[in-house]
TrEMBL record:
InterPro entries: ANKFN1 (IPR039269), FN3_dom (IPR003961), FN3_sf (IPR036116), Ig-like_fold (IPR013783). PROSITE patterns: FN3 (PS50853). PANTHER family: ANKYRIN REPEAT AND FIBRONECTIN TYPE-III DOMAIN-CONTAINING PROTEIN 1 (PTHR21437:SF3), WIDE AWAKE (PTHR21437). Residues 1-59 form the Fibronectin type-III domain. It comes from Myotis myotis (Greater mouse-eared bat). CDD domains: FN3. This is Ankyrin repeat and fibronectin type III domain containing 1. GO terms for cellular component: spindle. It comes from the Eukaryota.
Amino acid sequence: MSKDFCPLAGEIIMEDLQTLRCTITGLTTGQQYFVQVSAYNMKGWGPAQTTTPTCASPSNWKDYDDREPRHKGQSEVLEGLLQQVRALHQHYSCRETSKLQATGRKQSVSRSLKHLFHSSNKFVKTLKRGLYIAVIFYYKDNMLVTNEDQIPIVEIDDSHTSSITQDFLWFTKLSCMWEDIRWLRQSLPISMSSSTVLQTRQKMLAATAQLQNLLGTHNLGRVYYEPIKDRHGNILIVTIREVEMLYSFFNGKWMQISKLQSQRKSLSTPEEPTALDILLITIQDILSYHKRSHQRLSPGLYLGYLKLCSSVDQIKVLVTQKLPNILCHVKIRENHNISKEEWEWVQKLSGSESMESVDHTSDCPMQLFFYELQMAVKALLKQINIPLHQARNFRLYTQEVLEMGHNVSFLLLLPASDDVCTAPGQNNPYTPHSGFLNLPLQMFELGIVACFT
């Protein structure tokens, strides 16, 4: 902690020099530290070399303007709301338990038998014009099918409107609370059931509960990012779940995916494929998306590219097919922390007319950070197929560093303000290579929540 290294605050001997990096732990924020390095061979230790800069203080980007965390106080508010929901949920559970205890055993058995044989509580075999839920449970190359060798499908509504975007996005949130479907059905305001929106959502909850009963499990997996539609007026909402082993499910058996595809191919008409045909044709892409959307980035500092496009009823964000739960990105370095000095340099960079006007000479303390960031920008622009000269008006987002959790941090690269979000009918001046998706913003948010919380 002093220039003369007396007394020593610590020392590390590195014998494996494959990686010329060393992590010093247990440091105190704001304390100045001096470091020197000596090499050793059979003749002994060589003279110590000092660092550039000569000293440094552990810091974080938030120290730059002593800002308070953006989410300060929000967790307490959310916790209060959660407690209210739990209280209502507990009240409902107690009320339902007392109802069940008051019901005679004979009546329960009678109702259960009627429930099993009721015609409405069966899987759909053929699609007519309607809105449906399809469930894909898979293990390696096997997939759960009904006893009639069909994908488990139930009908939501046979008279849906052509646009279901908002209802679909509402349904995706159910994947975070499958176990609460019964409570949600009870909680929906029956007095307002004349509302078309509420009617559709009540039907979604009823169909979900029906699937859970038929399969004997609450967990239906995660919702695929877009419904599957055909020209016959059918819409399939698909949920996907990978199981750890070949469990036995009610009303189901396991079949190889290739066998199911070949069986369906012999029955379908390729000229006008139904939504079910499209589902089976694209099943490998759907499963690949599901697997990749669960992958988490390794710790480090990343540079991400934010590009949106809007339509009449939703906003979509550009992601890669390889990692659809995160923005297009490249890794800057292994250390996820942005220091106070580095963040100050970023602020100066954003305020300058050009990058050339910023001091990044060899003796500048930020020279290494500048080089890492420069390489990352070039690699990211190459990935999204944007020539360097077209990116002169691109900017770094300087309001904050995005801290995703699990030691993953992001700096954001933004297009010019007019090009961040492409409006309907507007030509996108930046067309990336193949291998990208425009993901609905709500689906992107759910992916972030699933991977980083």
